[in-house]
Design goal:
The structure is a single chain. The chain is built from 14 helices and 14 strands. With 398 residues, it is of the alpha/beta class.
Length: 398
């Protein structure tokens, strides 16, 4: 197989279409889908050399696959990472990114405003293997500093956060982590690589759920882990994935490759629409609180301006009247569908308190700002005016 070699540097939108492409002897234009478990060798000696790493190539699709490799390489080029490995889902990426490098006796500092499943990994799963954690207010740099212990090996955060869209100063947290000799792992799903590049801000590892904006059409699951340090991937991550097997399928990798081709266009359009929708909702009398990273009234607007190219495709808002009012709004929507996914071409809304964060106690949810009246809105590709009309009518019934 041959690889397209660029003659000069390419800008992100071009890499999203051409980056990392491998072509077989047939010269196909669309990336080939290699639905195979294994690969054949000309001789037993060739197989031995391949397994020893003396002869580059593919061994088994649990380890690596040409279609999967193209997906990994395309995002690596976009992100400016040294190496990347994919996984079967976004949560597999989060779990592997942490567990591949941690040992019993280690310590993790994490922002407390995390997706519920991420909190499970940090608070419930890691301690079973002797890894302790401390949760902090991610926006308070002093709490990061104070939480450091001699055995702290990793910092973990998401920014913007799910679902309250809190924004954390990645560069500042990275500096604290590195002073402590720890790695910073950032979940960048809500910002997407279009609006935020954590590695350029000092993060060591970046994770994505490809299920969200990267696919962008609600079709498949997938995840990706990218690192600024090849040693992290070669010494820790690669063997962990190889032996434990959270493998991305070739079919899903192919779908995600197709999604990458339009990622820039979709995210820009969705963000433009989200900004218009946010402005309308901020002025609506039934909206008690509106959180959108692209607005000047966002609590961390200065950090947004410093580290993000634009606001998110997500909006969080609270309606007066608690759960009943939130349910009335969601139920009155015609175009926007009720679903816990996000980053889709279709606009989606969810009630975090009873869905994505329902396993948490009411006290914990309130500590994160997740009230019974809070709704999370993911903006799709519909006509902006249709979405605004749909949401206005639904809010009028709150």
């Amino acid at each position: 197989m041959s690889e397209d070699k660029p003659k000069r540097p390419r800008r992100p939108a071009t890499e999203l279409v051409h980056g990392g492409t491998l072509r077989s002897q047939f010269g196909e234009m669309s990336e080939a889908m290699f639905l195979t478990q294994g690969f054949a060798y000309d001789t037993a000696e060739a197989a031995e050399a391949r397994f020893k790493g003396e002869n580059p190539g593919f061994i088994y699709s649990r380890f690596s696959n040409p279609t999967v490799f193209m997906f990994e390489e395309r995002i690596r080029l976009l992100e400016g990472a040294a190496a990347a490995r994919s996984t079967a889902s976004g949560m597999a990426a989060v779990t592997a990114a942490l567990m591949c490098m941690l040992r019993a006796g280690d310590h993790v500092v994490a922002a407390k405003a995390l997706f519920s499943s991420c909190l499970y990994v940090v608070e419930d799963l890691l301690p079973r293997f002797g890894v302790q954690s401390t949760l902090v207010d991610g926006t308070d740099l002093n709490q990061w500093r104070d939480a450091v212990q001699p055995n702290t090996r990793a910092f973990f955060l998401e920014s913007p956060t799910n679902p309250t869209l809190e924004v954390i100063d990645i560069a500042a947290v990275a500096e604290i982590a590195h002073e402590a000799g720890a790695l910073l792992i950032v979940d960048n799903v809500f910002a997407t690589p279009i609006w935020q590049q954590p590695i350029k801000l000092g993060a060591d590892v970046v994770v994505y759920s490809g299920t969200k904006h990267i696919d962008g059409q609600g079709r498949v699951l997938g995840g990706i882990i990218l690192s600024a340090d090849e040693a992290y991937v070669n010494d820790h991550l690669h063997n962990f994935l190889r032996q434990t097997g959270p493998t991305l399928s070739a079919f899903n990798a192919w779908v995600l490759l197709k999604g990458l081709e339009t990622l820039d266009l979709r995210v820009r359009r969705q963000t433009e629409t989200a900004a218009r929708v946010a402005d309308m909702m901020a002025a609506h009398p039934k909206v008690a609180k509106l959180i959108y990273p692209g607005r000047a009234d966002h609590p961390q607007a200065d950090i947004v301006k410093k580290q993000m190219g634009a606001g998110s495709t997500l909006i969080a808002f609270e309606v007066d009247g608690g759960k009943e009012a939130a349910y009335r709004v969601a139920g009155a929507l015609e175009i926007v569908k009720i679903s816990n996914n996000l980053g889709d071409a279709k606009s989606l809304i969810t009630h975090p308190s009873t869905t994505t964060h329902q396993r948490l106690s009411e006290e914990a949810r309130l500590g994160f700002g997740i009230t019974q009246g809070l709704l999370r809105l993911s903006i799709g590709l519909e006509d902006p005016d249709d979405l605004i009309e749909d949401l206005q009518l639904a809010l009028d019934q709150a």
